Every structure is written in C-alpha cells, then in structure tokens.
Amino acid sequence: xxxxxxxxxxxxxxxxxxxxxxxxxxxxxxxxxxxxxxxxxxxxxxxxxxxxxxxxxxxxxxxxxxxxxxxxxxxxxxxxxxxxxxxxxxxxxxxxxxxxxxxxxxxxxxxxxxxxxxxxxxxxxxxxxxxxxxxxxxxxxxxxxxxxxxxxxxxxxxxxxxxxxxxxxxxxx
Length: 173
Prior knowledge:
Largest sheet: 9 strands, mixed
Low-confidence stretches: 1-15
Number of strands: 9
Mean pLDDT: 90
Strand content: 25-35%
Strand order of the largest sheet: 1-2-3-4-5-6-7-9-8
Number of helices: 3
Helix content: 10-25%
Radius of gyration: 15 Å
Shape: globular
Structural class: alpha+beta
Distance between the termini: 19 Å
C-alpha cells in the first residue's frame, strides 16, 4: 500500500480529493472540514449517516482548533470506477494514552466485497506509523456483526472486558 508524505504539507495546504492512501482497489482521499461531498461521484445511498457523523466530528474539531491531518475524515473511492463508496476516519487526534479511534461506513451497494476491511487496514496502518499512537481502537453496536467481522479481518482484537457504554470494543496495537 502506498501513501503520500504527511509531513510535507502545512494544515492549510490540505484539500479535498487529495489521495492520502492507496490500496489495491481503493483510493482514500482526505476530506477536510467543511465536508463537501460534491467533489466526488457517489454510489447510490452515499454518503450515509455514518459519513456525515464523521464529518461532524471533524467539523467540531476544526471549530475548537483541534483538527489536524491525518486525524479526520476520508472518502473511500473505488479505483475501478472512480466512485465514492463511503467514508472512514479518526474521531480525533491521539489521546493522552496514545489511542486513536477509527470509524467507517460504506454504502450498502459496496458492502460484502472486502472494501471496508481494505480501508480499515490502510487507515489503521497509517495511524500506527505515528510515534504518539500506541493503539487504534474501534467500537460497534453489539448487533453489528458485519462490522465486527471487518475489524477482526483487519487484525483488531476484541477487548475482552465489557465496557460500560454497551458497545463492543476493538483494539489494534
């Protein structure tokens, strides 16, 4: 998997559609705030509510001066047809304990083809290249077994202790 240098650009130089990561079948493009989906050709039913939620997290981070790439939202673009199929991103910069939380969503028509696993692996690997990151985490609703399977295939381990928030937690170190 290839990626462009993150240290070569000042935060004000980041722009939409900048390909940050490539995988065999995907391009993962930075989507800085404010999120503008019009810069992409989307598949049906995309961007979905999960992408908008990640965009909101990134926008709130920017409002308080917390936003800095690579800790934000990305659009997942299928290389074969240049169509945006979903979003993925970090919920913020690394915590004091060195953890970053990852979230993602694919349009229903893009699910089941391994794209989510491919994107999660790429973004998690990017996070782990930063010295301040000790682990990438993710959470799913207990009934979301498809997303849990994605995280397991991407190398995450389920956190064995049930958390108080009722979600299923995963971690990759």
